[in-house]
Write a structure and sequence with these properties.
Distance between the termini: 32 Å
Bound molecules: adenosine-5'-triphosphate, magnesium ion
Order of helices and strands: EHEHEEEHHEEEHEE
CATH topology: Rossmann fold
CATH class: Alpha Beta
Shape: globular
Strand order of the largest sheet: 3-4-5-6-2-7-8-1-9-10
CATH architecture: 3-Layer(aba) Sandwich
CATH superfamily: P-loop containing nucleotide triphosphate hydrolases
Length: 196
């Protein structure tokens, strides 16, 4: 239940918010319910853009936002007229008090929902509640419209998700055709030719 060493992963580079959203969309289409995606990166790195894509991939075209009592910390997305699946978008930036505050705000229930996907921005603020097997997404600002997106699996389930996603991104979608992809070997990151 703490930061795990990355097992497998890839680095990609996006050149516009639409590409980051499209990558998120592919992830939303290929991630099993019950998974947790931790999104790291500085303010404005593109975490929310990426989560919007995940929500679209999971729930479009019937996506609706459900008002949550803790809306500053949590946004919930569902399909119109359906209770599940849900996308829980947690932003821990303003959460003071780590895991205890996370639990106190009722956010642990999101992690327990097997019919949901959980995306957490600023996961380093609540690292003690993160499951050992999760997908870590790290967005880095390279240039005004370029972002380096590192996706790292920390367990068996998330490793399958990463492999499926990169296969999909590489084999279809013209939008992603100019995306450069590099494999991360073990914990060492291979930036690959042309990656920022
Ligand atoms: N390639 C890109 N991918 C994602 N966003 C991009 C890209 N290029 C430019 N942007 C812009 O960067 C901004 C990213 O904002 P976003 O809210 O997603 O950041 P964030 O990481 O969630 O920040 P915060 O920590 O403040 O919540 C948006 O204004 C978006 O249009
Ligand atoms: Mg954000």
């Amino acid at each position: 239940m703490s930061d795990a060493t990355p097992r497998a992963g890839y680095t990609l580079q996006t050149h516009a918010p639409e590409e980051t959203e499209a990558l998120g969309r592919l992830l939303g289409q290929s991630t099993p319910l019950g998974s947790v995606i931790a999104l790291r990166g500085q303010l404005g790195a593109g975490k929310t853009v990426f989560v919007r894509g995940i929500a679209l991939g999971l729930l479009a075209p019937d996506l609706i936002e459900v008002t949550s009592p803790t809306y500053v910390l949590l946004h919930v997305y569902r399909r119109e007229g359906a209770a599940a699946p849900s996308l829980y978008h947690i932003d821990a930036y303003r959460l003071d008090g780590g895991g205890a505050a996370f639990e106190g705000a009722g956010l642990k229930e999101c992690l327990a929902d097997t019919q949901g996907l959980v995306c957490i921005e600023w996961p380093e603020r609540v690292s003690e509640v993160l499951p050992a097997d999760r997908l870590e997404v790290d967005l880095e600002h390279c240039a005004p419209t370029e972002r380096r997106v590192r996706m790292m699996a920390t367990g068996e389930g998330s490793a399958k998700v990463v492999e499926a996603l990169v296969h999909k991104a590489g084999s279809r979608s013209q939008l992603l055709s100019n995306m450069k992809v590099a494999r991360i070997g073990g914990a060492a990151i291979d930036r690959g030719p042309g990656l920022c």
